[in-house]
């Protein structure tokens, strides 16, 4: 039941109709009653309003208890709906900007890029290592070959005549040839590893290049979409400022406060007896109360607390 004043609160009051309402404080002498407070839904709106209980005949139109009743020209109240539409558009644009598919696409590409760059770095490091290993192994081969050449020259020069020396020289030539063979096989094995590493590096380099190109295209697309959204948001913001300037300060302040409190919606149209803020249909009592309220009374939805703007389609 909507409580119009502290005196009219009863034990059946399951919730205060207004969000900013402080907990009721009872004087020491006042008999304390059991007041059940219902946990609000996450969006801050109120539910479970008891359908029973007629409003106190002296009750004021729905409004914040504790704050003075706000009055505003019906045309100004209607402008709140324009303002709300613009604010909703801004929220949608913000949401679109934050959830552009390009953001996800880029995140995925960046993750793949990081992986391929790691592979590229590893392949290049291995390419460098095997290149150095190959140089060293080739130097070993050269050393053995030069020694074999020198021995061969000595043998061919005829300077060595002693059969023992000749035999030893030929034996060394034989072992040098075997050593050279072994070392050349080592070089070949290293060359194979070097080639494989170089191939992996080339492949990873190609993949990284391709991914970078794709990322650049996606980034361009994201930037273009962001610019487009930003331009539209700028235009909407300017329009919003222009409309806001025409709304009386107190009404604008209330609207902005409620918008901050209730998920970006501070004012809603009363359409065919339904609050378009919380989508709940108002009961007969509430409709009658709103019907009785003067046109310049700023009416609030008892369920969600938003400003309810009356129009020709309100069903009053
Ligand atoms: Zn509502």
UniProtKB/TrEMBL annotation:
<feature type="compositionally biased region" description="Basic and acidic residues">
    <location>
        <begin position="126"/>
        <end position="153"/>
    </location>
</feature>
<feature type="region of interest" description="Disordered">
    <location>
        <begin position="125"/>
        <end position="166"/>
    </location>
</feature>
<dbReference type="InterPro" id="IPR052376">
    <property type="entry name" value="Oxidative_Scav/Glycosyltrans"/>
</dbReference>
<feature type="compositionally biased region" description="Basic and acidic residues">
    <location>
        <begin position="1"/>
        <end position="10"/>
    </location>
</feature>
<dbReference type="InterPro" id="IPR056003">
    <property type="entry name" value="CT398_CC_hairpin"/>
</dbReference>
<feature type="region of interest" description="Disordered">
    <location>
        <begin position="1"/>
        <end position="73"/>
    </location>
</feature>
<dbReference type="InterPro" id="IPR003743">
    <property type="entry name" value="Zf-RING_7"/>
</dbReference>
<feature type="domain" description="CT398-like coiled coil hairpin">
    <location>
        <begin position="83"/>
        <end position="263"/>
    </location>
</feature>
<dbReference type="Pfam" id="PF24481">
    <property type="entry name" value="CT398_CC"/>
</dbReference>
<dbReference type="Pfam" id="PF02591">
    <property type="entry name" value="Zn_ribbon_9"/>
</dbReference>
<protein>
    <recommendedName>
        <fullName>C4-type zinc ribbon domain-containing protein</fullName>
    </recommendedName>
</protein>
<feature type="domain" description="C4-type zinc ribbon">
    <location>
        <begin position="275"/>
        <end position="308"/>
    </location>
</feature>
């Amino acid at each position: 039941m909507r409580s119009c004043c502290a005196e009219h609160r009863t034990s059946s009051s399951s919730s205060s109709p207004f969000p900013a309402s402080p907990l009721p404080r009872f004087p020491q002498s006042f008999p304390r009653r059991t007041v059940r407070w219902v946990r609000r839904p996450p969006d801050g709106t109120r539910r479970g309003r008891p359908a029973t209980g007629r409003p106190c005949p002296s009750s004021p139109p729905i409004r914040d208890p504790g704050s003075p009743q706000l009055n505003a020209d019906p045309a100004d109240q209607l402008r709140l709906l324009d303002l709300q539409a613009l604010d909703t558009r801004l929220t949608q644009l913000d949401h679109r900007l934050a959830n552009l598919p390009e953001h996800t696409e880029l995140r995925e590409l960046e993750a793949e890029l990081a992986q391929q760059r790691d592979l590229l770095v590893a392949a290049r490091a291995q390419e460098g290592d095997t290149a150095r290993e190959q140089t060293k192994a080739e130097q070993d081969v050269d050393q053995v070959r030069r020694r074999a050449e020198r021995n061969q020259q000595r043998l061919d020069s005829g300077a060595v005549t002693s059969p023992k020396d000749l035999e030893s020289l030929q034996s060394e030539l034989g072992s040098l040839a075997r050593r050279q063979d072994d070392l050349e096989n080592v070089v070949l094995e290293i060359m194979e590893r070097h080639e494989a590493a170089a191939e992996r590096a080339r492949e990873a380099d190609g993949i990284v290049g391709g991914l970078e190109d794709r990322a650049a295209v996606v980034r361009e697309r994201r930037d273009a979409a962001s610019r487009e959204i930003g331009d539209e948001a700028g235009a909407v913001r300017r329009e919003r400022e222009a409309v806001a300037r025409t709304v009386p300060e107190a009404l604008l302040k209330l609207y902005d406060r409620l918008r901050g409190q209730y998920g970006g919606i501070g004012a809603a149209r009363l359409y065919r007896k339904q609050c378009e803020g919380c989508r709940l249909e108002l009961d007969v009592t509430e409709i009658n109360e709103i019907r009785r309220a003067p046109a310049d009374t700023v009416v609030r939805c008892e369920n969600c607390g938003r400003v309810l703007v009356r129009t020709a389609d309100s069903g009053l």
